[in-house]
Design brief:
single chain, alpha+beta, five-stranded antiparallel beta sheet, two-stranded antiparallel ribbon, 3 helices, 7 strands, flat, CRISPR-assoc_prot_Cas2_sub, CRISPR-associated protein Cas2
Amino acid sequence: MASMIVLAASAVPDHLRGALTRWLLEVTPELYIGTVSARVRDELWESVTACADSGTAVLAYPSDNEQGFELRTAGDQRRVPVDFDGLTLVSFTRDSKEMANLL
């Protein structure tokens, strides 16, 4: 069954952006939405994680859990999804410069 996905990909190679636009609409720079099957979603995500290089990506898609969605991330990001008793929360990592100022 097809379902809507939202994918944000920043600083990724142009060929990956082109591949994403075959399946999804780029509604604003670096933000893609579309309705695809779970198989297509997983294959798109494999392509994103394999080709992201130094870029970052976040995928949100419907799921049968309390929040009704799941998140996947790729690349080094300041915001990291964390499982908290079945709920996905977003944790912020501190920059090393901020940590140095605290010490």
